[in-house]
Amino acid sequence: MTVLGRFEKRLEGLFEGAFAKIFKGVVHPVEIAGAMQREAESHKAILAGGRILVPNRYVIDLSPPDHDRLAPYAAALAQELAQSQAEHIGEHGWTVYGDVIVEIERGEGLDTGMFRVIAEVAAQQEQHAHQGYGGGPGYDAPHQGQPAPPTGPRLVSGDGRQYAITMGSTTIGRGEQAQIRLPDVGISRVHVRIDFDGGQVIVTDLGSTNGTLVNGQRISTIAVQPGDMIQLGTTSLTLQAG
User: Fold this and answer.
1) How many domains does the chain divide into?
2) What InterPro entries does the entry give (predicted)?
3) Position 46 in a domain
4) What would the pLDDT profile of 86-125 be if each residue is shown by its tens digit?
C-alpha cells in the first residue's frame, strides 16, 4: 500500500463512520498530503556527501469555510499529515532537520475547496516559535558534532562531521533523548548505543525500527575496529582511531 493509501486508511479509522461526512464538500486530506509530497520534491537541496535535504515544516492554508468546518479535527489531521509526510520522506531516504511538523491555518482570500502549502526547513528554535498543530521538537541547524579529543576515537560521517566517543556510553538517535542527534528520518529516536572502556568500542542496536548495519551486516551487539562503517538509516559513520 502506498503512503497516501495508508494515510487515508488511518483517517478512516480515526474518524470511523464520520469520515465521509466530515470531509464531504471540503478539501480532501489526501489532496493536501499529495501537495505536501510535491512541495518536498520541489524544495530538495543537496548536502555535502550527497544527502538530500527537504523541508520539515509545512503550513497548510485552508479557505475560511473549510478551516472553520475542520477546526474541531485540525489537531488530529495535522498529526496524521505529519506522519504521512515523514513516511514519504523516509521511503525516499531524504534528510530533514527535525521532526516533520504541520500547521493548519486560515487562508484569507481562498475560495472553498482551495488550499495552499508553504514548506520550509525549520531549525529547533524556529520550531519552538511555531507550535501549531503537530508541533514537535527539532534539531539545531547542522552542526559539527563534539570535537574529538586527540587521543580518543571518533565517528566521522560521509560529509565530514565528527562525533567524539567518550568513556562510558553514548547514545545516537533522532530524538531529544539521544546524546548525539542525527537529522535522518530513517533513524529511531534512540537508535544505538556506543560503549567505550578506553580500549574496545562496542556498538549495540537499541531495538531500532530499521536496524543497524556494520560493514553491511545487520547487528545487535558487536565490537568495532577503526575503519568499520556503521549504517544508521541513510547515515554512514566510520570509526576512526584517535
Assistant:
1) 2
2) Cell_Proc_Reg/RNA_Proc, FHA_dom, FhaA_N, FhaA_N_sf, SMAD_FHA_dom_sf
3) yes
4) 999 988 988 887 778 899 999 999 998 899 999 988 754 4
